[in-house]
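To: structure subgroup
Subject: Chain for Friday's discussion

All,

I'm putting the inputs and outputs inline so they're searchable in the archive.
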Amino acid sequence: MRSRTVMIIGVVAISMASGMTRYDGAVQAQTSTKAAGRPQLTVRPVADFEVNGSGDNAAWKSAEWTPLRRRQPDGHPYDTRFKSVYSKTGIYFLIDGTDRKLTATMAEDFMDLWNEDVYEVFLWTDERYPAYFEYEISPLNHELPILIPNFNGQFLGWRPWHYEKDRKIRKATTVSGGQKTSGAAIQGWRAEFFIPYALLRPLQNVPPKPGARWRFNVYRMDHDDGNRTQWDWAPVGDSFHEFEKYGEMIFADK
């Protein structure tokens, strides 16, 4: 979340490049729907698996890498890419980026992670309702999962209630070319996480059936040396919360 007016409600809330990391697969270019001109990604079903931050599970072989776009041409010269697959119980993401410095100091979850290095995923599951799920994860494996009701640009972030057991996100991060410590010189970092459908309820169109469509976006923020650079998948304007500009996720049947 950027220069945003979002307040993270701290009470119990409602649930509703120079250095290069190893690139081990083809990169999928953005494709656009003819009707809306927005990027589109097809995700394939897999059996559930455990995440470890490395993305080495065989399930990822069914997904190609998709690149993010650097929003500031003169920003940090890092590359960022992602994959996604889904199962009967939730959706998986693997995000990977080159880097030079691990700019992350926050040591708790539910902090303002976007002010340091972070990957972000926004899931808008049903276009009939202006509410979507936002997830942020730092290189130090701290997270910010929140539900966003957004009414004509007026929005707040709500923390999940009973965030445990089958409602809790499984996550892990790894760092290449250095230590996973604040300020370390590195070559890149990777985040792998599983978002359970149980956490997304009562958002509609969840769980998705084969052929279902969600709107979504993937972002990155990097703050090395006090200079901020942003990346996005579906191009948006000044705010990452311009959800009507998000791309489209199509759930394949096989």
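Points worth raising on Friday:
The radius of gyration is 17 Å.
Confidence is low (pLDDT under 50) at residues 1-35.

D.
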